[in-house]
Amino acid sequence: MEQVDTLVVGAGVVGLAIAAILSEHQDTIVIEQHSQFGEHTSSRNSEVIHAGIYYPQNSLKAQLCVAGKGLLYTHCQRYHVPVQQIGKVLVATNESEIEKLHSLVAQANNNGVTDLQFLSTCQLRERAPEMNAVTGVWSPSTGIVDSHQLMLSYLNKLSQHGGHYVNNTRFIKAHFEEGHFVVTLACGEEEFNLTCKHLINAAGLFAQACASNIDALATHHIPPLHYCKGQYFSYQGRHPFKHLLYPMPEQHGLGIHATLDLAGQLKFGPDTEFIEQLDYTPNEQAKPRFVEAIKRYWPKLDSTRLQLSYCGIRPKLQLQGSQDFVIQDYHHHGIKGLINLFGIESPGLTASLAIAHKVAKQVNLERE
Ligand SMILES: Cc1cc2nc3c(=O)[nH]c(=O)nc-3n(C[C@H](O)[C@H](O)[C@H](O)COP(=O)(O)OP(=O)(O)OC[C@H]3O[C@@H](n4cnc5c(N)ncnc54)[C@H](O)[C@@H]3O)c2cc1C
């Protein structure tokens, strides 16, 4: 039976980052069920490098987003990953939102994001022309990244360290015995076993399903999973956006915001909709809601230029309230060598390297 120090399940941006970092010190394999890496959430997002503004102080999201942002900019420069520190404008569209904007700035400060600046009317008009805003805040550290190239760079780092990426290989189950895991994998119809000391479950929307097939893990450690769809409309034609533009956040997301990709394509979204099945089909019927939300900050929107684009799905752990990333190690579930990552929604892309370093620390502490 093949043996490996660490098996990472899931080649999304988080699993690949973890595999890239862990492979510096140990024999590492990352497996992916599909023929391509990153086909789920990691290629269905806004590709924004978040500053770390919104998250509750001391939450994993706040800590790992702020740390991850710095690590990501450095990594992108070093590995020539296309990235642009384009900045974003947060806008209050009426008097009642001003207080919310001030509390976001205070929240950001608590999280160590100290570079936000209130914009004068003149600066606001210059950075966000045509926008309906009573006041605005500038976030200079927000950026955009090519998520596919980022994942490729993690893969390159993994192979430079002698680690392996194996596609078309599905995690089926794991049996824990005498300090190691006997893992059953499937390649097509064929099943085979492998042993590993460390098993990292980074399966994103499938993390709960994988966890439920690890025999030693008590079911009460597996949180519920709720699919929360977020879809986008792209905008064809000329537009005035030079930076990303965000309205005030909503309960489950950041509000239907305006982002640009590295080719300059403008898109709006994502919205939030809880769904029962994993289904990436975008829904044209959402258009009136998009038009209404966008017109609140961009009244001149020509809605005929909005085109249905793509969807992503957030792995929510609860239907109400804010939730944090859940990264479970030995101290949570008592199984040496097992790390489960649940609920890695936004800002998981931004935080990917910081998550990877946290997991590496947990693995190395367990090794000692
Ligand atoms: C709409 C939306 C917008 C977002 N925007 C941003 C943003 O702008 N900035 C930001 O920082 N974050 C953003 N995020 C969050 C970010 O995209 C995610 O946190 C990140 O992509 C999660 O990566 P992952 O590797 O955990 O999951 P995934 O990308 O889902 O990867 C998990 C992988 O595991 C594989 N897998 C699952 N089960 C098995 C199995 N049994 N065997 C083998 N392989 C398996 C899957 O096929 C998949 O490839 C957004 C998310 C959404 C939904």
From TrEMBL:
<feature type="domain" description="FAD dependent oxidoreductase">
    <location>
        <begin position="5"/>
        <end position="361"/>
    </location>
</feature>
<dbReference type="InterPro" id="IPR036188">
    <property type="entry name" value="FAD/NAD-bd_sf"/>
</dbReference>
<dbReference type="InterPro" id="IPR006076">
    <property type="entry name" value="FAD-dep_OxRdtase"/>
</dbReference>
<dbReference type="Pfam" id="PF01266">
    <property type="entry name" value="DAO"/>
</dbReference>
<keyword id="KW-0285">Flavoprotein</keyword>
<dbReference type="GO" id="GO:0047545">
    <property type="term" value="F:(S)-2-hydroxyglutarate dehydrogenase activity"/>
</dbReference>
<protein>
    <submittedName>
        <fullName>FAD-dependent oxidoreductase</fullName>
    </submittedName>
</protein>
<keyword id="KW-0274">FAD</keyword>
<comment type="similarity">
    <text>Belongs to the L2HGDH family.</text>
</comment>
<keyword id="KW-0560">Oxidoreductase</keyword>
